[in-house]
Amino acid sequence: MALSHADVQAIQRLKHEYCFTIDGGEYESWAGLFTEDGRFIRDSGETFEGYDELYAFASEGFDDAFDHSAHMVTNPVIDGGDGNSAAGEGDDVAIGRWYLLLFYRRSDGDVGWTQARYDDVFHKIDGEWQIAEVDLTYGVTRDD
């Protein structure tokens, strides 16, 4: 199902807010971008579901790992839910694919970067797009 241009722009802005809030340490806002039962899935299979788990992941795990980070997402491909995936279908469902380039400085001072891919599901609730699922698959990593 085709999305309107306004919906695609709203989803892109949502993903950009996702990047800015996690990098800025605004973990309450970051977790608030997800649906009530939203999930973050790492390629290891580790899953964080719901506001409390998402907030804990960000505020404890992410904050402990990095002194500084900059998430950059590129090459967005955003489509309406077509019913051929677990995402569902309809005007209130969208799927998105993005490349991630994450630059970071670890607590020990080491600097590095990671390339990964996001496969996301978005739901439109009460006229606002929210993240229903983030599935992260790591690619190349470079640590100094």
TrEMBL record:
Pfam families tied to this protein: SnoaL_4
Native organism: Natronoglomus mannanivorans
Coiled coil regions, renumbered to chain: none
Name of the protein in question: Nuclear transport factor 2 family protein
Domain SnoaL-like: 6-134
InterPro entries reported for this sequence: NTF2-like_dom_sf, SnoaL-like
Top-level taxon: Archaea
